[in-house]
Specification:
The protein has 571 residues and is of the alpha/beta class. Helix content is 37%, strand content 18%. The strands form 6 sheets. Strands 6-7-9-8-10-11-12-21-20 form a 9-stranded mixed β-sheet, with helices on both faces. It has a 4-stranded parallel β-sheet with strand order 14-13-15-16. The N terminus is likely disordered.
């Protein structure tokens, strides 16, 4: 009985946590971007009832249609039962015409003096010779929607006029606008200096910042949270990552915002697999007004956005991509996450500087036929041996062995044996570490490898402690207590503790936004001169030349000692 009650309480707690995420999405993210959606003018009478016949556009969801037509989502499902399994672009959806629909009211966001509040509203400046028709096509917005926000606009527009496109929403100090519908395109580039790498930017007090992340709002809002809770399944991983990263970034923006600094956040919900959607985003007028871009998540989408950022002469940051190739030939790019090769080199430096005694001995284990592991082994040996040459030591100082049998055969008594493995094969790792721990006994053996080894569920942690397991990490994972206040605020709002992406979002936001506040946009070209260590992340940027972006080489070395995980003093 007690066990059943415990399970029920856990199930209820998990269900509540899921609803917290749904609440955040539905209340805080989804409502922002609706002005580019228009109601269908195709009204038909079917079975004595009137319906809007809406042709679903790419990127539209049934949830957004429910909001657009002011009807319940269940009402759409009841009239379109086939849509419950998923609606596709081009499909015609029947939406009941509500006889009690609230009348459309006209807003008047322009003052009597004709002044537009650009802090409150999203605006577009009319270029010379532009017509109202051309603007509706460019921005993919209807003339009725423009008339709603700009009463009397149909009578004519003029060069330099500010047109209101929608209302921003402000929570805390930073303004956030979320874009989830299809953006308009404008292939022209009206900035004559857009290809000039020497263009300088004046320091400002207000900056437009865009986050391009896979919130996956449509899928998340359609998630059956009762099913997830009943099966003890996790909330969608990418949505969780994006929400936590955004909340951390937003908190950093709020902490820096004030009279001398305003941050206008725009969120773009896009999956990197949707290349067409990314192309639409980077061609939109909103994107062209950004001063700092964070994302997309993966290398493919990031490359497209980075090319456009280069033309605009604005910085773009990759928050999670490890691949250095995204930095080539684009000095406006930077990446927060060190590559595995950067971590590998840091581990080699630590072995040389801290582990290896005068008679120390380093062996690296080949765990099989994995080409990636072989590449890591080759890179480690090359870097390590090059460092040894600088010290005027023997060229070949790393012994490569095969599996545990190779380690046992190559072991040297009376010296420190440093054993390194870069294998990602969990079966091999589990067996190898178990045998190595039993063999080592009281011998002086230190095991080094990737951080992921420490997260293996079935691995005996005593073995890692016995072998003084040492690994490189991109974050200061033992220092989260420094953000206790942030974590407390998050938990009060979400009823759960924040994940690692919340802290990464905060640190990235604080580092880059503070650079904007202190030095303006051009600070992004001198990141190698702005070495900063925040509680969770070390920013130590490097680039080989002025045409390449910045790679973050900030990292830490951790080890198991006395049944605790401790950060070493190595930097």
């Amino acid at each position: 009985m007690a066990h059943h009650l415990f399970y029920k309480l856990q199930n209820m707690r998990q269900l509540f946590n899921y609803r917290k995420y749904i609440w955040l999405l539905s209340w805080f993210i989804v409502p922002f971007f609706t002005f580019a959606q228009t109601k269908s003018t195709n009204i038909q009478t079917i079975g004595g009832k009137k319906y809007y016949i809406h042709k679903l556009e790419k990127g539209q969801s049934l949830y957004s249609l429910a909001r657009l037509y002011n009807v319940e989502l269940n009402a759409i499902y009841s009239e379109n039962p086939q849509a419950e399994k998923g609606a596709k672009a081009g499909e015609e959806i029947k939406i009941p015409v509500s006889p009690q629909a609230a009348p459309v009211t006209t807003v008047s966001p322009v003052s009597a003096a004709g002044i537009v509040d650009t802090v409150r509203y999203i605006t577009y400046k009319v270029s010379k010779g532009e017509t109202l028709y051309a603007i509706t096509k460019k921005l993919n917005v209807s003339d009725k929607e423009l008339e709603k926000w700009n009463p009397g606009i149909s009578q004519g527009i003029k060069e330099g006029q500010l047109i209101i496109l929608g209302e921003k929403r402000k929570v805390g100090n930073a303004v956030t606008t979320v874009y989830t519908t299809t953006a308009g395109t404008d292939p022209s580039n009206t900035n004559p200096d857009s290809l000039n790498p020497h263009v300088t930017h004046a320091k400002k007090q207000s900056y437009n910042v865009g986050l391009i992340l896979p919130f996956r709002i449509d899928q998340t809002l359609a998630t059956d949270i009762n099913y997830l809770a009943g099966k003890k399944l996790s909330f969608p991983a990418l949505s969780t990552l994006s929400i936590d990263f955004y909340m951390g970034f937003k908190r950093a923006a709020d902490s820096l915002s004030g009279k001398d600094m305003e941050v206008n956040l725009s969120l773009f919900d896009v999956d990197d697999k949707d290349s067409g959607r990314i192309e639409q985003i980077v061609s939109s007028e909103t994107f062209k007004q950004l001063d700092l871009i964070v994302g997309p998540l993966y290398a493919g989408g990031f490359k497209v956005a980075a090319q456009k950022a280069k033309q605009m002469n604005v910085p773009i940051v990759s928050p999670f991509t490890q691949q250095n190739k995204i930095l080539y030939n684009n000095n406006w790019t930077s990446k927060m996450t060190p590559s595995q090769y950067t971590l590998l080199e840091g581990l080699a430096d630590y072995c040389l500087d801290s582990l290896k005694q005068a008679n120390g001995y380093v062996m690296i284990v080949n765990g099989g036929k994995d080409p990636k592991e072989a590449a890591f082994i080759k890179a480690f040996k090359a870097y390590y041996n090059e460092r040894m040459k600088d010290r005027k030591s023997a060229a070949d100082t790393v012994t490569e062995v095969k599996g545990f049998a190779g380690v046992k055969a190559a072991y040297k008594a009376g010296v420190k044996n440093i054993v390194i493995t870069f294998s990602a094969n969990q079966v091999f790792i589990m067996d190898f570490i178990t045998q190595l721990a039993v063999f080592s006994g009281k011998k002086d053996v230190v095991l080094c490898g990737w951080q992921s080894i420490s997260a293996l569920e079935n691995l005996d942690q005593d073995y890692l402690n016995q072998l003084q397991f040492t690994f490189p990490a991109q974050n200061n994972i033992t220092n989260l207590m420094a953000y206790d206040n942030l974590a407390k605020e998050y938990k009060e709002q979400m009823n759960i503790a924040p994940g690692e992406y919340f802290y990464e979002g905060f640190d990235l936001g604080y580092y880059y936004l503070r650079a904007l506040k202190e030095s303006g946009i051009d600070a992004a070209l001198t990141l190698d001169k702005r070495e900063v260590e925040l509680p969770y992340t070390r920013f130590k940027f490097y680039r080989p030349d002025n045409t390449t972006g910045f790679d973050n080489k900030g990292m830490y070395i951790f080890r198991y000692k006395d049944y605790k995980l401790e950060r070493t003093g190595w930097k």
